[in-house]
Amino acid sequence: MRCPLLRQPVGFKLQLLTTAAIAAFTPSSCFGNQREAVYDQKEDCRVPRTYEAVYIFDSTLEDAAISDKIKRFHGLLAAKEQPEVAHWGRRQLAYSIGAKDNGYYVVSKFATEPASLPEYERALKLDDGVIRYLITLHEHEVGAPPQSEEDLAAATRRDDDDDDED
Questions:
Q1: What is the CATH number of domain 46-137?
Q2: Distance CA 143, CA 121 (A)
Q3: Does residue 29 register a pLDDT over 70?
Q4: pTM
Q5: For residues 57 and 67, what is the distance between their CA atoms, to the nearest angstrom?
Q6: What gap in Å lies between CA 111 and CA 164, rounded to an integer?
Q7: Chain centroid offset of residue 126 CA
Q8: In the predicted model, what is the mean pLDDT of residues 2-6?
Q9: Partner residues linked to 2 by β-bridges
């Protein structure tokens, strides 16, 4: 059977279409806005980023044991700076996790390379003393942005002027 348009066998048209489709969808070495640039994705993993981690430990653990666990976890990060650690203490959980109703909360902020996170998370998952944890990328402080002395003084003057108008 022959294709009436190409006067070639029908399989020939299908072969032309698949060859053209393959050429059209084959990615070139230059894509997006990276013309002639060599992009190494591994290079991104070497740039330290700031993370924030919240741990909920078993409330039956002693404070010294919790501090030792946190030091061990932070030792896996190979961070250049000492992490900021805030102990929130024992609190009631919002909902029961297994048979646990209370937990010991700790919030930590640290800077490390993304490549060190998988081993760190693995250690958290395997530790029986950790009930839950959450690691997030720390992009900015929560709340209003910091104000300079001039901005604070101007805001105070505006508030005083508003009070005088009443």
A1: 3.30.70.60
A2: 28
A3: no
A4: 0.58
A5: 11
A6: 48
A7: 20
A8: 53
A9: 9
Per residue, the 3-state secondary structure of the chain, as one string, reads CECCCCCCEHHHHHHHHHHHHHHHHCCCCCCCCCCCCCCCHHHHCCCCEEEEEEEEEECCCCHHHHHHHHHHHHHHHCCCCCCEEEEEEEEEEEEEECCEEEEEEEEEEEEECHHHHHHHHHHHHHCCCEEEEEEEECCCCCCCCCCCHHHHHHHHHHHHHHHHHC
Which residue, among 65, 52, 22, has the nearest Cα to 112 in the 3D structure? 52
Domain boundaries, the chain: 46-137
Give pLDDT tens digits for 57-71: 999 999 999 999 999
Cα 29 vs. chain centroid, distance in angstroms?
Answer: 29
